[in-house]
Amino acid sequence: MHDSPADDTSADARLAALSSWLSGVLPSPAVAIAPASEDASFRRYFRVTLGRGSAVPGRGEPASTLIAMDAPPSREDCRPFVSVAALLRDAGVHAPAVLAADFEQGFLLLTDLGTRTYLQALTPANASALYEDASATLVRWQAASREGLLPAYDRTLLKRELDLFPDWYVAKHLGVDLSAAHKATLEAAFAKILENNLAQPAVFVHRDYHSRNLMLTEPNPGVLDFQDAVFGPITYDLVSLLRDAYVEWDEERQIDWAARYWQSARAARLPVREDFGDFWRDFEWMGVQRQLKVLGIFARLYHRDGKAGYLKDLPRVMGYLRAACARYRDLVPLLRLVDALEDRRPVAGYTF
Asked: pTM to 2 decimals?
């Protein structure tokens, strides 16, 4: 959810090069190579079908499919993926194993975590069990945290993400030029949001820990799309999980799942707030940062990259944002501005 999609002009040449590379690292020729998934970056993933009786290269265990990643070196760096994969697996998280790598060409060969995402599998009946697994995995990931191994989720990065909202959602998507007063309102809100975010204890942060990146696997869940991991606010990944841009649960369930995570985190001696009410406030304020960022990213994916599929999820993200802002006095000016932007009519002194 951080970059733009690949240009197809050189896709065939890249696929040919990838196929040639695979022929040198696989123990036997691949039966088939087919697209496995797409994301919002320049990376592409292919499912490599192996012949009957094939084994995982360098491991000896049987496998019918593997995953090949194509990440053009001029656009992507595979090294963070490999580093974070190792951190996750060392923490006991079910992440893909890196079987072979060619950093100069931008190719990786990975174990396959299957085809069924949480988003595809979730139902009201199984949600609590699946979120319990995801929460336990998140606690393991955070408990392994060590400073200095991942980039800091610092003020500069958090603010850069917030700026996606005025730059892409407001200016490009809504077509609104903010006045100096409106910009001042937004900046004042951003300052308060950052103050809260940066006061939270820091741990390993996956940064997109949600239903499209969690796979239904054994052990469950499998975790994908972790290359942008950072060291930052402890509530961030839980917000990604429970206030997911792609699936929504009623607030009673969100609070219940958050409380269960909080209890597990305390038992694991993670630095969460001692009072759940204070923890929930941090969760909501972190959510506001993420929701503003996601609104900007989804608008950018549409207007810059031609990906219209994300537009249907904008109302869900906006709903999270407005509900949280309505509960905190310091965020009410932001809510009024957002309401004015959305409704396009004068509200509390705002005119467009």
From this structure: 0.91
